[in-house]
Amino acid sequence: MGKIFKVLLLFFMLAVPFVLSGCSDDALLYFNSQPITKETVNYPSRSFAVGQKIYYVVIVPKGFKNDYIRVQVVKKEDKTNHWGYTIYHSRDFHIDTSKNYFTDYIVLGEAGYYFMQIFDFDHMDIPFARNDFWVKR
C-alpha cells in the first residue's frame, strides 16, 4: 500500500507543474542537495553552500529532440549597476534519448546568484529549460 502511495505521489508531483502551466511540452529543471531519485525529486532546493554538490534533473515530457545538450551556468554579478552576467560553467553532454530525463551535478566555488539553462544543439540561441538558485557561504 505504501509503495502505491509513493508512486501516485511522485506522479502527482510531476504532473501538477504540467497542468498548471497549461503546456505539457515544457521542460522542467529541478535542483537538489541529494542525488536525484524518485524520492528526492519531490523535494527540490534552490539554496546551496559553496563547494556543495548541486544535483539537477531535466525532465522533458515528450523526450529529447537531439542526442546532445549544453548545460550552461550563468552567474549574475550584483556589484554592477545593472547586474552583469558571466558564463560560469558550460558543458556538453551526450544523452540517452530513450529517456525523458537527464541528471548530473555541479559544484560551484563562489557564492552568488546563478541560473542554469539547458540548450538543444539544434537551437543554441534559446534554452528549452531554465531555473535559478543561490550559492551561499
How would you portray this structure in words?
This protein is mostly beta strands and 137 residues long. 15% of the residues lie in helices and 44% in strands. It has one helix at 2-21; strands at residues 28-32, 47-49, 53-59, 68-77, 84-94, 101-107, 112-120, 129-136. The strands form 2 sheets. Strands 2-8-7-4-5 form a 5-stranded mixed beta sheet, with no helix packed on it. A hairpin with an 8-residue loop joins strand 7 (112-120) and strand 8 (129-136). The protein is globular and about 45 Å long. 18% of the residues are buried. Residues 16-24 have low confidence and may be disordered.
Short description:
This protein is mainly beta and 137 residues long. It is built from one helix and eight strands. The longest helix has 20 residues, at 2-21.
Largest sheet: 5 strands, mixed
**What count of helical segments does DSSP give?**
1
Structural class: mainly beta
Question: Which ranges are low-confidence, i.e. pLDDT below 50, for 5 or more consecutive residues?
Answer: 16-24
Order of strands, main sheet, comes to 2-8-7-4-5
Percent strand: 35-45%
In total, how many beta strands?
8
Helix content: 10-25%
Radius of gyration: 16 Å
Shape type: globular
Please give the alpha-carbon distance between the first and last residues: 42 Å
Average pLDDT figure: 85
**Order of SSEs, N→C?**
HEEEEEEEE
